[in-house]
Structure formats: C-alpha cells, structure tokens
Amino acid sequence: MATKHEQILDYIETLAVGEKISVRRIAKELQVSEGTAYRAIKEAETKRLVSTIERVGTIRIERKKKENIERLTYAEIVNIVEGQVLGGRAGLHKSLTKFVIGAMQLEDMMRYTEAGNLLIVGNRYKAHEYALQAGAAVLVTGGFDASDTVKKLADEYELPVISTSYDTFSVATMIHRAIYDQLIKKEILLIEDILIPLEQTHLLHTKDSIKHYHELNSETTHGGFPVVDETEKLVGIITSRDVIGHRPTELIEKVMTKDPITVSMQTSVAAAGHRMIWEGIDLLPVADNQGKLQGVISRQDVLKAIQTAQRQPQHGETIDDIIKSQIQLQPAEKLTLEFRVTPQMTNSYGSISYGAYTTILTEAAASALKTKNRKDSVLENLAVYFLKPVQLDAVVHIKPNIMDISRKSAKVDVEVLDDKGIVGKALLTFQLLDR
C-alpha cells in the first residue's frame, strides 16, 4: 500500500498542467497533516512537477524530458529574474521556445516575435500589446508596469506579462546563464538514466529461505540481491558472503545485511560509482525517500555509463571542462603537459585558484596512469606539499611521475614548473578501475 507521501505525489501528477495548488488544499483533500503535504510538494518541486513563485503560489507544470531540459517555463523565468507577474498567470506553466530582445523599431521587432516566444523589452506599451497578439509572452525590464489593456489581454490569451527591476542586458545574461546551467545538467548522468527498473530486478523477501537465494543465484548468476518486506520496502541486501555456513532452511532475514547503502534516482552516476568503490560493493539498491525499492545498479553498469559518457560531446562547459581543455600534451618530452592560466581560473588576487590548481594536478596524474595501463582511475587522496602563486596568462609545465602502481591502486608525484623553476608539488593516490 502506498504511503501518504506517495499518495500526495501521485495526486499532484494527476492535476492538470497550470492548476494552482497549496499545502492547505492538499492537506484538506487528502486528509493529511500540513507538514506531510509541505514535504511532498517540495519533493514534487525537485522532480519538476510543480514550480513555486513568490506572490503567486505553487502551480503544476509539465514535467520536462531530459532531452528538452534546456527549455524553460515562464514560471522558471519569473524565479530567475525575481520578477512580478502583472497578468496571464494561467499561462505560467507553458514552455517557451525563443527569446527576443526588443532593441529595434516596432515593425522589425514584430517580424522576429512569434507564438511561444518571450519578448524582453522596456516600457514600450505598443510592443507589449503586439507581442501578446502574436502569441508571445512579455518580460518588462527596468521595473516598469504594463497598461491595463495589456494586463487584460494577457489574462485573455493566458500569456504571462512579467515585470523585473533588472535592465535588459542583465536579464538576457541571467536567462542565458540558466539555460547554460540546464545544458550542463543535461550532460550529467544520473541513476535514473542507467537504472535496472524494479520489474526487471531480481529480489528476495524477508521470509524466503537461503534455498531461494541459491536457486536465484543459479538462475541469474548474480551474486547479490536486494531484500524487501511485504510492503516492498527495502530492508536489506544478501550476497554469497552472507549465506556461507548457513543451512538452506534458514530465513533470509536472519543472515542478510540490514540497512544497506542506497542511492536515489537523482544521485549522479559518478557519485554512486565512487561510493561503490570506497565501500567495496558490486550492487547498489535505489530507493525513494520512503525507503521503497525502485531498482538496482551494478558496478558494471556504472563503469560502462561513465566510459560511454566520456566519449560524448559537451554542450555546456563546466570550469573543469575549461581547465582540461587548456592542458596540452608536449610530444617532444616524456609525458609533460603544458597549461596556460586563463581569467576564469584565477582568484581575487590574479593568481590561479586552488580549485583550478588541484584539477590540473589530478588531470595530469590521471593522464599518466591512462598512458601507463589504459585504466580509468578515481582520486582517493591529494596532498599538496609545495605551492607558489601562478599568475594570470602564465604558462606552466606539469610533469607527473608514477611512483608506485599495483592492480588496484597507484601513487603519482606531480611537479609543476614555470620558466623560473618549480611552483608546485603534490602526491596523489588513485584507485584503479577494471573495465
């Protein structure tokens, strides 16, 4: 039977897109406490089922697929620009396809403005009116208001008119940044992207016997299985190590590992992979906030996903991507990397930031290991024991030296030099991953 929390989420999904909801309404209609309703609405917001806007409330929005994640809704625009909705609240749930900056003559502006667009413009009232008639929403910059006629049209066409105190340039920058962030999120692999769903997951119940484990093990050749109770809530995990020395008639609940490590659907694949490596586990259950099993992932799934993702083009560059793109291999010398410090990598003093510095060290050491044994690696420990400031536009050479390497781990000493000598030294320890 579904919990009250799950019932609220299911109820929210049944609501029509654009419908307004509140904690009090949910609590009253589903006969739950306001605290339970509030927590469920917050989770629905995380899942992009609803959007909460100051002075407007919480509205049901269309859940976006990952391939369309860069398309923003008008509700999201309100939050990004800290705006006020002047009219057309009923259309806040709609997604927009293009932004048009109204920095031209009215006739030219209208040639670029189409249905599903957002016109970003100041106090040009005729432009507001024409944009709505063309099927576009309006974002009024500079803190200006809209006319009563425009507000009435906005309500009639269900197209939002939003006012913000920011200027047009700032608003365009903020929206561009939001889309850019969405593109980066789109490239990050989450557990939900590689999950073995529950209907395809082999599992055992607490009242099953060890004999059932052996039968399932022979059938699937899997070494471990999640264990659930009668409500399908995850209560443990059982592996071959747990059943050694026990009679086939003993119950699973007596020998299983209780309270296993779990991840959620929104956990990144990289974070899950690191957790599996540190804990030495090959199977990781995926559960929701209520502890209900949603599926499993294996170490092989994680490694395959990470290796596949590494071959994909990046649509949105992170700081790490920018740093890595600056590192160039010097073929004339024995595994020496060259790096130029750009403005994005500096601190307030104009020298390279500690975060950028450690990324360079890690990337150089990982490159050395990849050249040596063709294996992927995960950083376990980093000790910087010599560091001098490296200025903007400086070119440095990074020389990684593999000090020790075994089947599962490696130690790399990294030396960083500029034209005057050594500016940094570090010792890094990695765990090596089998493909």
TrEMBL record:
Entry keywords, A to Z: CBS domain
Domain CBS positions: 195-254, 256-318
Keyword RNA-binding applies: no
Alphabetical list of InterPro entries matching this protein: CBS_dom (IPR000644), CBS_dom_sf (IPR046342), Diverse_CBS-Domain (IPR051257), DRTGG (IPR010766), HotDog_dom_sf (IPR029069), Ser_kin/Pase_Hpr-like_N_sf (IPR028979), Thioestr_dom (IPR006683), WH-like_DNA-bd_sf (IPR036388)
PANTHER family referenced in this protein's UniProt entry, alphabetically: CBS DOMAIN-CONTAINING PROTEIN, CBS DOMAIN-CONTAINING PROTEIN CBSX3, MITOCHONDRIAL
Stated name of the protein: CBS domain-containing protein
